Description:
- This protein has 8 helices and 7 strands.
- With 248 residues, the chain is α/β, with parallel strands linked by helices.
- It has one domain (7-247): NAD(P)-binding Rossmann-like Domain (Rossmann fold).
- A 7-stranded parallel beta sheet has the order 3-2-1-4-5-6-7, with helices on both faces.
- Helix 1 (16-27) links the parallel strand 1 and strand 2.
- The protein is globular, with a radius of gyration of 17 Å.
- NADP nicotinamide-adenine-dinucleotide phosphate binds at residues 12-18, 36-39, 63-65, 90-94, 113, 141, 143, 186, 188-189, 191-194.
Amino acid sequence: MKIEGSNAVITGSSRGIGRAVALHLAERGANVVICCRSRVEEAEEVKELAEKAGVRALVVQADLGTVEGAESVVDRCVEDLGGVDVLVNNAGLFELYPIHELRPEDLDRILRVNLMSYFHTSRKAVADMMRRGRGGCIVNISSIVSMIGMAGGTAYAASKGGVTGLTVCLAREVARYGIRVNAIAPGYIETEMIGFMSEEYRAKVMSRIPMRRFGTGEEVAKTVAFLVEDATYMTGQTLVLDGGIMID
Ligand code: NAP
């Protein structure tokens, strides 16, 4: 799968990791579908920056917590750009609840956005990739929290663990169509998602990272690009991108 000339849907690309992925793919020549839930202005800014790279870009505002919303981001790519070659499932919510305070509606919201939307976009994207017969690539953003745990993170970790299961099974299922499915499990990446951390907490976390720094959205973006274009014999894998936390 060549990035140049491809059509890529990146969920949650109004900011954070998704923004970096969308801009990196655009700089490498992909037409991009920028997706947001509510931050339309920020998504429009990403679109303008992407277009400066000479590619086509469009913004889709949709709540990925609904089936229709998740399906719509792929539908728009097919309708407006002619098909989808690359799907980056990235949108996510990070919410922590002690299990005895986790309400059914909190669990439901987290699973719908972080896991179920990945199914709905993938269903649509795979159908289009099979129809066009040109193969394709899906990259799912998971998290090391599903591997090492975090107090209060049961729902979040379960959603991300589900992403791993989706990744390996779908990879087996669609390999015969030339579609590869991989995941990235980031550690701490400098975005709004970890903005809740106090200076003291950040310092404590940092001391447990062998590389002694948080990652950047650009570093995740380059790994996405590697999976899309260079990792031609890799499927069903989850790449850990955590500055060494898992080996500590
Ligand atoms: P972020 O800065 O909080 O951005 C989240 C993105 O997801 C935004 O574009 C947001 O859209 C979108 N989004 C959230 N809920 C949505 C919904 N219901 N419908 C549609 N879009 C929705 O997060 P991030 O740090 O870039 O994280 C991106 C992914 O990486 C997530 O899956 C996260 O779990 C994973 N991850 C992050 C870290 C980290 O340390 N940052 C670590 C491991 C894994 P709006 O802007 O419109 O709200």
